[in-house]
Fold:
Amino acid sequence: MRVLLIEDDASLCAAVTAGLAASGIQTDVGRDGEEGLALPCRGVYDACCLDRMLPGLDGLSVLRRARAAGVATPVLLLTTLARVGDRVDGLDAGADDYLTKPFDLRELAARLRALARRPAALEPTARLRAGRVSLYPEELRLEGPAGVVKLSKKECELLEMLLRSPGRLLAREQLLARVWGAEAEVDDASLDSYIYLVRRKLARAGAGPRLRLATVRGAGYRLEADECAPRG
Structure:
């Protein structure tokens, strides 16, 4: 596994490089935003660790430009900013995950491995399958052994995001930012209501007990399934 680390703190770069090497992860380093953009992200790295507070071009600007250029490499933001609004800004800019400094190198390695296992969230998919049901995002349609169920746009977007990250905890603010947008006036109660609706429609389609939309109290939601993979 090969990752790109864009970080201006030389001592942290050395510690992260050594720590990830111990986990079998090769690390290349960029020291500022301009250098980070110049490095060949597309098709080369399994994931990218990006510091938010970079000299010159800041991390969010690097991220937005990379996504606008079509770079789909999973990005983990590293930052000292821990407020919910800061996390939402990062996720809405295109980050896939968020880790607050200081952090444990074992957790960093585990998060990077999880990101590398994820299907590319920016690529359109004709069908997403989980257990006994299939989601067709373009048609807002869920199909299973009990029949076909139509979804609203938000229900479909929420379920699609969960299906693209099987087994991974998705934070409440991450779901809100990706599905509704960082500026939308949507509260936790609305998210809970949509999760309830998605669960009902999974049941109506015949998902069965092998597909579980689990609540992680105080954190978010996780889709647990015996099999959950994108299919074209």
